[in-house]
Structure formats: structure tokens, C-alpha cells
Amino acid sequence: MGSGISCNPQHERSSPTSQPDGGRVVKIIHFNDVYNIEARDQEPVGGAARFVQKISDILAEEEMLVIFSGDAFNPSPMSTMFKGVQMVPVLNACNIAAAVYGNHDFDFGLDDLMELKSSCNFPWLMTNVIDKETDRPLGDGMEYLVLQYKDIKVGVLGLVESGWMETLSTIEMSEIEYQDYVEAADHYGSILKEEHGVDLVVALTHMRWNNDRRLAACAKHVDLILGGHDHNYGVEQVNNRTIIKSGTDFRELSKVTLVIDSENKVKTVVEKVIITSEIPENENIQLHVADYQEKVGAQMDKIIGEFGVPLETRFSEVRTEETNMGNFITDVMRVALRADVAILNSGTMRSDCIFPPGKFRMRDLSAILPIMDELLLLECTGSQLLKALENGVSKYPELEGRFPQLSGVQFQFEPKREPGNRILQDSVYVLAEPLDLQRVGFKLLSRGV
Ligand SMILES: [Zn+2]
User: Fold this and answer.
1) For the chain, which end, N or C, has fewer CB atoms within 10 Å of the first or last residue's CB respectively?
2) What is residue 372's predicted lDDT score, i.e. its pLDDT?
3) What would the pLDDT profile of 70-110 be if each residue is shown by its tens digit?
4) For residues 429, 432, 436 and 439, what is the CA-based torsion angle, rounded to 10 degrees?
């Protein structure tokens, strides 16, 4: 994982209780970023039912603190329909001791999140973001938490980065007060150590690796970082502190053993557990998943609108010209995020057919857009916008997915000209104004990853 430090405790398997100095031990199960409760076909199959069974098997053997590092309520096809409600019984069956919010947990807005939170049987943390309206941590999270593991007190923080806060579509930056996560860790870490006398401080984080590394390098009181947001499994040591990211989607978890020696130094041993089809399914959760799979089927028949004209989504059309369905989707995108221009690569539209006029069902929408994508709002210059459009028409007339469906912008192009130079410059208009190449600050909406 990038600029990692050489020491990699992932491969250590020594039994911490056999340490010569007989250090005190805390054991933790960690996971993060879970979206689909169904298992998938290929290994590791994951799935909530096997995951829950694995956790209960581990807990039946030994006491461990279960820690979750955020992102559970969205996105997934089920979450689109049930707004994350299907996830709550699964999380509640995991015996979670503490969780930090992830960016996607805010996708349906604060009111929905408060409902979900109130059905959870464990606390959510948010140490470094304040909701100005309530003067409380965002999402009514806890600033910090003290967990007891046998005779050891474990202080827990929940830290997030500014990057994803700025992109939350349901929350404005002006409504929140963000504190740098290192400052917050120092502030609350010293409260935990001095006022609560904790033996250890564990930071739950939902941020990118570079920020977790900075936290490990700079924060004074953090002994372990259990991260989310990145979905690749990884363990790193920075500044003698271990950072762990435990994969995604109920496919992996980490068993973490912390040994506090007589000088209060902390040693971390990590074991990666992979959720394969060999692990049996928990019966209750398996029934719960099957129940929701059935509900998805019923939901697909739901009528969500009516169209008076045939809707064009054939590859031969959407990959060579604007179509009414492409216009409809990009208009919705542009208005929803208040962009000047929306660009959708036509490859996103997967249905390859004409929908007849009449009732439009959920099944039709998910045939057109089966992939759960995030939208990306970018600020760009006029010339960057022109380059993006040039890229979109560079392969014409091949049926390339890059051909754009557009809202807010119009142009003409000459396919005989060289790729990259096909658009007739005076033909480009943004919201009925001729394109100014020098202009900065166009709000461009595109498909994210
Ligand atoms: Zn995330």
C-alpha cells in the first residue's frame, strides 16, 4: 500500500499471551465498509450470514471487542430501495462495541440516519465534526468512548477526513464545523488518558491511507488505527503504530491482538480472516437476507413513472448520438446537484433496447442503470470542458461507451477531423452561452467511481 513502512505485522502469528514480559492483552475484531448483505458467487463469497456466524464463533471462544469503521447504509441495490434499513439487523448481530460513521452513512440525510442509528444496539462515534445546528457531533455521534476489556480501559475515537465531508450531498460544509483529525485526536486523546485513565487509545477512522498515515505519524495519544473508506485489505506500521484496513463487504475481517508491555509500549499482532464458502451461514441472518431478496423482487414491479414516448437506449443510438433517455438522465443529474453541465458516458446505460411508452417500472430503471455509481461534481475551466467533450467524440463512429449523453451543453463535431480536434469551437454553448475557454468554475457533473 503505497509508501508503507517495512515492518508488516500481518504475517506475524506469535501468540501474544506467551510474551516473555507477560504483557496485558486486548483483543479486537475489526471490519469496515460493508454494502451488500448477499453473498456473491465467486470466492471469497462473503455475505452477512457467514460473516455473522464467523464473528459469533470467534466470540464463543474468547472475549473480543468488535469494532466497525463505517459505511454500511449505502450504496447497494438494496439500499436504493430500503435506505439501509436491511443493514441494521446484520450490524446488530455483530456484537459491535463501537463504530465510526462513514461518508455513505449520510447518503439519505440526517433524519434517516437518526432513525437507523436509533435501531442500532451499539454507539456511533464522530469526534471531529460538529453539527452547528445542534452543537453536537454530526449524526449525534459520541466524541469518544471508554470500553472495558477485562481489567483494561480502552479509549475510542471516531475520526474522519475533510475530503469526503465536502462531497456529502445531504450536508453543506457551512452547516458543520470540521476539526483537523490530528488536533481532535490530541485533544480527546489527552482527555481519555488523563481524565479517564485509559490504558490505550484506539482511533476508528474513515479516511484515505495518506490521512491515516499522517494521524499515525503526528497524533500524540493514538496507539492503534482501525480504518475504513479504502476497500483493499492492508496493514501498515507508521511511527510504531499499526494501521489496519480490513477489506470490504463482509468478505474479510481482522483479529487484532494488542499487547501492552511493562513499559506501556503497545505491540500489535494482526490476523486476516477471509469469509469463504466453507464458513457456515448464520440461520437468522440467512433468513433475513432471503426475506430482503424476495422484497427486492417485489419492488422491481413497482411503477415509478409513466412516459408518453418510446425511450431510446439502444447501444447503436446512445453511443453515437443524444437520445431522449440520455437527456432525461443527465437532466436529472444536473438539476439534482446544481451543476452547469452533466456528462454521462453512454456505456453506463446497459439496457440496449427501446422502452415502449407507458408505465415505467423499477425493473426498467435498473435495466438501464444497473451499476451503483456515485456522481462526481468537479469545478473545471472552459478548455477542460472542451477536452472532456473531445474525448467523448474521439472514437466516433465506433460504438464506444465514452460517447457522452449531455445536459447543459451543446456542440457540433466533424467526425472526419483528427480525434481531439473534432468539435467545432464556435458551436459549443453552455446553458445557451458561447463557451469561454478561459472561464473557470464550471460545475461539471460526471460519473464517479
Ligand atoms: Zn467511505
Assistant:
1) C
2) 66
3) 999 998 889 988 999 999 999 999 999 999 999 999 999 99
4) -120
What is the distance between the alpha carbons of residues 65 and 242, in angstroms, rounded to a whole number? 17
How far does the centroid of ligand 1 lie from the alpha carbon of residue 33, in Å?
Answer: 7
Cα(228) to centroid of ligand 1, in Å? 7
Q: How far is CA 249 from CA 38, 239, 266, 413, in A?
A: 9, 29, 29, 44
Q: Please check whether residue 403 is in contact with residue 346, taking contact to mean a CB–CB distance below 8 angstroms.
A: yes
Cα(252) to ligand 1 centroid in Å equals 16
CA atoms within 13 A on the CB side of 376: 12
Q: How far is the CA of 131 from the centre of ligand 1 (A)?
A: 19
Q: What is the pLDDT of residue 255?
A: 98
Ligand 1 centre distance from Cα of residue 279 (Å): 27
Query: In b/e form, how buried is each residue of 153-185, taking b as 16+ CB within 10 angstroms?
Result: bbbbbbbbbeebbeebeebeeeebebbebbebb
6, exposed or middle or buried, with CB in 10 Å at 0-12, 13-18, 19+?
Answer: exposed
Cα-to-centroid distance, 106 and ligand 1 (Å):
10
Q: How far is the CA of 229 from the centre of ligand 1 (A)?
A: 4
The residue with cell 453511443 is 319
Instruction: Please give the biggest Cα pair distance in the chain.
Output: 78
Write the DSSP symbol of residue 106.
Answer: G
Question: For residue 32, what are the contacts with CB-CB under 8 A and spacing of at least 6?
Answer: 68, 69, 70, 71, 102, 206, 226, 227, 228, 229, 245, 246, 247, 248
How far apart (Å, rounded) are the C-alpha atoms in residues 357 and 22? 74
Bridge partners, 272 (sequence order): 254
Q: Nearest to residue 215, comparing CAs of 179, 191, 259, 268?
A: 179
369 Cα: distance to centroid of ligand 1 (angstroms): 22
For residue 186, count CB atoms less than 10 angstroms from its CB and return exposed for 0-12, middle for 13-18, buried for 19 or more. middle
Q: Which residues of the chain have pLDDT under 70?
A: 1-22, 371-372, 447-449
Distance, in Å, from the CA atom of 59 to the CA atom of 65, rounded to the nearest integer, reads 9
For the purposes of burial, counting CB atoms within 10 Å of the CB of 298, is it exposed (0-12), middle (13-18) or buried (19 or more)? Answer: exposed
Q: Which domains does the chain have, with CATH numbers?
A: 9-295 (3.60.21.10), 302-447 (3.90.780.10)
Residues forming beta bridges with residue 174, ordered by sequence position: none
